[in-house]
Amino acid sequence: MSKQNNKPETKPMILFINEEREALFSKNNRALLTDPMDDNNPITVQVLGICSALAITVQLKPAIVMSLSVIAVMAASNVIISLLRDLIPNRIRIIVQLVVVASLVVLVDQILKAYAYDVSKELSIFIGLIITNCIIMGRLEAFALGNGVWKSFLDGIGNAAGYGFILIVVAFFRELLGSGKLLGYQVIPDFVYEMGYVNNGLMLLSPMALITVGLYIWVQRSRNRSLIEKN
Predict the structure, then answer these.
(1) CB–CB of 136/77 below 8 Å?
(2) Angle (CA) 197 200 183, round 5°
(3) Element (H or E) spanning 98, and its range?
(4) Which class for 110: exposed (0-12), middle (13-18), buried (19 or more C-beta within 10 A)?
(5) What does the DSSP assignment read for 148-182?
(6) Contact 177/142 with Cβ under 8 angstroms?
(7) Which residues contact 15 (CB under 8 A, 6 or more apart)?
(8) 3-class state of residue 62 by DSSP
(9) Which of 34, 155, 182, 195 sits at 20 to 30 Å (Cα–Cα) from 42?
């Protein structure tokens, strides 16, 4: 009589992390990318990262660069923390997370200084403040520490993209209505100004960023009533 093989089934290894057998872009994994863009947006739903939405959205170019920087830092930090999650002592996990994020931010900052120095000067201290961005630290703590590499990577991309999307939308309207330009190029024709049109200088002030975000939140909740908090 042949002996039965009683060895437990092993889960496939992906980057040294045991993962459930699941399609790379299954419904759940796709939700990690799409939900933060709308129904679970870090800025408009979770109300995180508001400071940078106020500070760097006067023009579209720095908003785009900031968005790409956050995507790079957040995706990489989620992957690194997920890889190390079983090795990090619980008592120092916040310190380890800060070290990882700070190292990535320094790398991004040096790349910007090398290849986009003018934008780097314009963003100034706000690149450094990515280190303390509550969206990044929140996803490391709430997701990367408890999930595998691939899911953590998708979660980082999704939440950073949702954050960047709001920055770009706000910057688009502020630069367009405030100066008549986009990416530094004039888009409102001269004949419009000759007809009496005047740029709205208020759009270049920080309070208008908050008002623009508020209008976006209003439109979002009007379209999706489930996001309205009940008393």
Answers:
(1) yes
(2) 95
(3) helix 93-115
(4) exposed
(5) -HHHHHHHHHHHHHHHHHHHHHHHHHHHHHHHSEE
(6) no
(7) 83, 149
(8) helix
(9) 182
Residue 154: alpha-carbon gap to chain centroid: 12
DSSP summary character for residue 22: -
Q: Residue 36: which of 141, 166, 172 has the closest Cα?
A: 166
Greatest alpha-carbon pair distance for the chain in Å reads 96
Residue 157's pLDDT band (cuts 50, 70, 90): very high
* Dihedral angle of Cα 82, 87, 92, 93, to the nearest 10 degrees: 10
Residue 163 near residue 197 (C-beta atoms within 8 A)? no
What amino acid occupies position 86? D
**C-alpha distances out from residue 86 to 49, 67, 71, Å:** 29, 30, 24
Bridge partners, residue 13, by sequence: 18
pLDDT for the residue numbered 231: 59
How confident is residue 204, by pLDDT bands cut at 50, 70 and 90?
Answer: confident
Q: Exposed e or buried b for every residue in 111-142, given b needs 16+ CB within 10 A?
A: ebeeeeeebbebbeebbeebbebebbbebbee
The percentage of residues in the chain with a pLDDT greater than 90, rounded to a whole number, is 20
**Mean pLDDT on 192-202:** 87
**Alpha-carbon span 31 to 204, nearest angstrom:** 35
The token pair at 166 is 């709001």
Pick the more confident residue, 99 or 116: 99
C-alpha 17: how far from its chain's center? 25
